[in-house]
Design goal:
The chain has 125 residues and is α+β, with helices and mostly antiparallel strands. The protein has a single domain, classed as VSR Endonuclease (Endonuclease, Chain A, 3-Layer(aba) Sandwich). Helices cover 47% and strands 15% of the residues. The chain has a 4-stranded mixed β-sheet with strand order 1-2-3-4, sandwiched between helices. β3, α4 and β4 form a beta-alpha-beta unit.
Length: 125
């Protein structure tokens, strides 16, 4: 887990929000993990995508996008395209995808936005 992901985990816990780390939303959408998951994913046209965090009851996926300054996989053509496909699939499955930079997490801006998203769903504090 990156430092910014660790920080976000602390912010979520401080607000008593139960977030699932590395949530496998593709697998969960087609029957869950376990035997036969690859076949079910293929039949559904999904992949075994994971989100950094998920607020499952609110259907909010949270991604901390840390590769922007390092030239990582997520900023190069194929990786960027795959991320867009992942976010598109998540939204078609009814999830809201919130993407934050490490700076947004560390400044507290990300948790403020997450709290607003929860409030908009009637689940806020």
């Amino acid at each position: 887990m990156s430092k910014s992901e660790e920080a976000l985990a602390l912010h979520l816990r401080a607000h008593k929000l139960e977030a699932v780390r590395e949530y496998r939303f593709g697998a969960m959408a087609c029957g869950g993990i376990g035997p036969g998951v690859r076949a079910r994913l293929g039949a559904a046209g999904l992949k075994d995508w994971r989100a950094d965090f998920a607020l499952v009851d609110a259907k909010i996926l949270i991604e901390v996008e840390g590769g922007g300054w390092t030239g990582g996989r997520h900023t190069r053509g194929a990786g960027f395209e795959e991320d867009l496909n992942k976010y598109d699939a998540a939204q078609r499955l009814g999830w809201t995808v919130y993407r934050a930079s490490p700076a947004m997490v560390l400044s507290g801006a990300a948790i403020k936005t997450i709290l607003i998203l929860l409030k908009l769903r009637g689940m806020g504090q």
